[in-house]
Amino acid sequence: MTLRVKPVAANVKRSDSRERLEHDILEAAKRLFAVRGYGGVSLDHIAREVGTAKQNLLYYFSSKESLYRRVLHGVLDVWLSYMEAITHHADDPETALRKYIAGKLRFSREHPFDSRVYANEVVSGTPLFAQEIKDRVLPALQADIAVFNRWAQQGVCRPVDAAHLMVVLWASTQAYADYASQICLVLGKPELDAEDFAAAERLLLDMVLRTVLTKAD
Prior knowledge:
single chain; about 220 residues; mainly alpha; Arc Repressor Mutant, subunit A; Tetracycline Repressor, domain 2; 2 domains; about 0% strand
């Protein structure tokens, strides 16, 4: 009996094609969820956006909810990677804060749909992703708070309510993605550019460094 072996190149090509399609599905879903919200999107909408059949989506994701959760997990992967700046530079408060603020603004500029789809879930009361936020975001936040408390104990920064400080930083940096259209109206321009993000970074750094690193008299 002669065994028929499938060509390796053909298998690799099919694997690459599947990975590309899965990537395209996730990106299209992210854009639509960001713009329309979870309730305003169907698998048919996503399939049309990708240019494929709905059945192909169901091959990768068993339901709209499973696809939505996968999108949000991907968003958190990126978002939490920027949150690590503070713990990674815990020995240098100024560097930690500079990298954190710069990174969060870069996230808003480079991943606006990520920020908006996450914001939509939070504004809706986290109906589908509350447990994941508790499991993934809260430990990262607690780690950052511990760093701020240690800095205060060491006398290298003012004692601050680190939880509220982080909330303020989230809001101020993510506004440039979540409320970009409003900011464009305020600035009188069609879209935000690199200088707008640089100006926001300079202002936030000045505010935060003066507040956190300057010791109380």
